[in-house]
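3.2 Worked example (two chains)
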Amino acid sequence: MKAKNEGHALTSAGEDYLEAIYCVMLEHPGEDSVRSVDVSERLNVTKASVNKALSALKDGGFVDQTRYGRVELTEEGKTYAAEVWGRHRMLRSFLTVELGVDEEVADEEACLMEHALSQDTSRRLYDYLKRQGVAMEQE
């Protein structure tokens, strides 16, 4: 099986942290950075877990962090996070609209599935949903 994100070595957890940072930023338009505590609350994890993950994301070139603790996505981080969030929204739409899965269950399962899709499968599913007239959720 081909790796879905060739050239990137992020784990599913790393993708979850990137996605969480991205989503917190979407919830606060105009802000270029987020507090690590916001990420902690969104993922329901400890601040220590967030700090450990941020260190790995920083080493990978996905985030920058100021000495005051605010976290900013790099351009590469924004692109990667937007891709993960896009897969999540697409999968959630597929599960709820096409399969009739409960929204809460669909959200949880989309989170699991988003990490396993290859870019090719993701593109094919997107094209399928578009042909079916399924509206993709907006950011």
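3.2.1 Second chain
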Amino acid sequence: MKNSYIFYFLFFITILSCFFCPLSFSQNKADLDAIVEAEMKSASSVMNFQENLNTANYDIRYQRLELDIDPAVLFVSGSVTTHFVALQNMNTITFDLNRITNTANVNYNNRIQVGSVMKGNTPLNFTINDSDKELIITLPQTITAGTLDSLAVSYAGVPDQVEQAFIRSTHSGTPIIWTLSEPYGARDWWPCKQSLDDKIERLEVKLRTPNIYTAVANGLQTSVVFHSNNTKTTRFVHDYPIPAYLVAIAVTNYQIFTQNYGIAPNNFPIVNYLYPENYTSASNSLSVTIPIMELFEDLFEAYPYKNEKYGHAQFGWGGGMEHATVSFMGSFGRSLIAHELAHQWFGNKITCGTWKDIWLNEGFATYLDGLVVEHLDGQSAFVSWKNSKINNITSLPSGNVYLQDSDLSSVSRIFSSRLSYNKASMVVHMLRWVMGDINFYQALRNYLADPMLAYGYAVTTQLKSHLEAVHGSSLTEFFNDWVYQQGYPTYQVNATQNGATVQIQLNQTTSHVSVPFFEMPVPIRLVGSGGQVQNEVLNHTFSGQTFLVNVPFIVQEVLFDPEKHLISRNNTVTLGENSFITSPLGLYPNPTSDVLHIEIGNENIILGEIWSMLGQQIDIFYQKSLSIAHLPTGIYWIKVQTSEGWKTGKLVKK
């Protein structure tokens, strides 16, 4: 599958695609650091990577990996068969493969030996460009553009350990081999097209291992064949487009915990590959996967790989990695489970098109973790989750969601937890706030279903187009302020009540000069002396703007953004008071057994009410003096409405 944004990679070679994982308010800083570390691990090598233009002349349709893996030994051997379509006339074909040699009987110390290249039964000549990490194969005759062809590369060796893409380690004394290829480690352990503009349309993986171990790879396990030498071959098939960096394998003494999701015919397995020593605790933690899957399917669309499986495989790195159909997990906290599952939609089905667009992966995956908090824990917990994000985001005054050219040389900036994860997630929430739930979720469903983007790549402008199409108006101002520029607003709220009208003035300052003013709908909550609540949303278009709000009660408190919809900091609220509101309601004599006089200055009574302490209305009146002789002995509330508003006082009847 070719990406329509190939030109992005040709003109901006160092601005490469990206894909990765993160958190909830219950996670502490160490949890987030582990997630970011897993993503920075492979990204550090990418800073010096250049897209291999020598692989641009063909499109991969199918690849089959047939590998021998014994986790007791750091070694890989086998073959990779590739079916490809020529995009132009070809005399050679190039694959990416790191630290290659064609010398027989070599010491395999961090070296891969290519044994042969076959086209059917015909051996092909090949050369090695080790400095550029290339395997260059000479074709027997010119392949014309549009032709489908195939060949197989046989190889063996010890993958290079610098980038830690193919790792042997142990857990409780048992060996394990696992891969973490994101984004450019695949070439360390198999001959591939290590490109971000071409996804493999169909993948098959056959892993031959000792019988005592269990193998895992992408896609659906279709068979296990046992051999006479105490080995077995496990076959997996993945029928969805997948980039090389998401191809993953792991082999150890896994104990499998399978969950069944959905109702036939729309059901699929969630297959979890767990260390035996962690089986009980991990399987208990993984029970939350099903309600999270249900939530994401309800909000967005069906799981993108529902014809195969989802699952988790325990491995030896902190955090996790969202390999298609099977996330590799260093632990099983709910936040990490939610984050990696979210990436199956935002990161795997649609992958961010450049490093600058990393927020399309990380911001959405982080926000979906927040949606889990909202739907499983409730609104109060969700407000706390958002508040923790806002506190982190506003701990510094600057920083973009969409990266600048100058940011691309810094791995720590690309994977900034404050900006690429937390700020990006709250930008997603503010889009929801601006658009409303119905339009927001419909726009994202349209985005995920777009045939030009699905199982391919997207950039920020394409997401914006889908949002605007449903929203019905431009979001340019929003994207300029919150995505492309820096900082956040600070609000000063001044409110004064005059009768049934509250005047609210909104002033704003900003933390960074790149945005002189953030135009946003601002939520305000008015709270009455009797516990009444009135929520208002003020369309704030300039600093100093004044709003008049009708309120049928005396306002005792004004709250700014109580549900934490906005990124902001150090906001102040001042509630001004006039003499009518601040002066007490005059009731005399008090206590009294007969006549009651009401003192409200020159105001006339529009309506007077007598209420019991149990909240029952006893009587009404319209004059400033009245008889209460008919009332039983007790305590009552007297409520009086004038043109200036309501006043309330307490009366003791003797």
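3.3 Remarks
Residues 521 and 539 are 4 Å apart (CA to CA).
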